[in-house]
Amino acid sequence: MDLSIVIPLYNEEESLPELCDWIKRVVEKDYSYEIILVDDGSGDRSWEVVEQLSYENPHIKGIKFRRNYGKSAALNIGFNESSGKVVITMDADLQDSPDEIPELYRMIIEDQYDLVSGWKKQRHDPITKRIPSKIFNRTTRIMSGLKLHDFNCGLKAYRKEVIKSIEIYGEMHRYIPVIAKWAGFGKITEKVVQHRKRKYGVTKFGLDRFIKGYLDLISIHFISKFGKRPMHLFGALGSFIFLIGFAIAVYLAYAKFFLEEYRMTERPLFYFGLLAMIIGTQLFLAGFLAELISRTSAERNNYLIQKKIGLKKREKSKAEHVEQ
């Protein structure tokens, strides 16, 4: 199959028929394709619309979560179920244009990029979203070393090997290019894409996403560096702090017996050295325990799937429960 188009959605019943018809017009003649609609626990008629669309078009498949797990969970399960050589993601609110799909596909197949990220150079969002987004993107560029202007653009294209090699959870969908880079996929670029005004409904994201975004960036940076070897961070840091405390204790003991007699507990330096040894020991033990946990960690994506359409029934696991 040429194309898998993964679309996470939440309360987008009005936009889905128009979006799917638009995608069909763009890709049907030139590509074999599938559209995977992931309903992230919508409270409106979105799933009924997905069922109707799937009945009318066998290329449309659907997954419904029992409740709202977030965009990362929706993308992750969509990636797991996709089978196209190129996987394209877009939002369901009609702000991403399906007309961009052929060029994104060409950049992956012909130009041999691993990932192409959309850049909404001209945005139709209020200033309260544009300014925080610029700050957020600038910070991410500095920390990740990736020269992208819009990390959070929903319109992206991936080589199949990329999405099958990474896992996203929590709120980390904003950092898929960063995760892909740290997974060893170096051919990452961006393409200026059309950004349209929202036609139906309202945005589902608030300002709190930027706070969560920065916390997730720190988490990704830590996990990429030390996720498989936490002892290298905590053990080294703990040993260093412990040695400082131990050096202070040795100095105080030498001074007491060879320089002047005094009570160690009267010296503030004594408590600093004692505190350093305690903290150093705790950090070392934290690294040791983290090392054990990292080797036996359970699956991070623990969400329940209520229904599927057009997808093969898979063996039930701890991570998902499917009702056909």
Structure description:
With about 325 residues, this protein is α/β, with parallel strands linked by helices. The chain folds into 2 domains: about 5-225, Spore Coat Polysaccharide Biosynthesis Protein SpsA, Chain A; about 230-295. It has 10 helices and 8 strands. An 8-stranded mixed sheet has the order 7-5-6-4-1-2-3-8, sandwiched between helices. The radius of gyration is 25 Å and the shape is elongated. The two termini are about 25 Å apart.
Measured as a percent range, the helix fraction is 40-55%
CATH class of the largest domain: Alpha Beta
- Low-pLDDT residue spans: 315-324
Global structural class? alpha/beta
Helix-strand blueprint:
Layout: E1 3-9, H1 16-27, E2 33-39, H2 46-56, E3 60-65, H3 71-81, E4 86-89, H4 101-109, E5 115-119, H5 127-144, E6 156-159, H6 160-163, H7 176-182, E7 188-192, H8 208-226, H9 230-259, H10 268-295, E8 305-309
Parallel strand pairs: 1-2, 1-4, 2-3, 5-7
Antiparallel strand pairs: 3-8, 4-6, 5-6
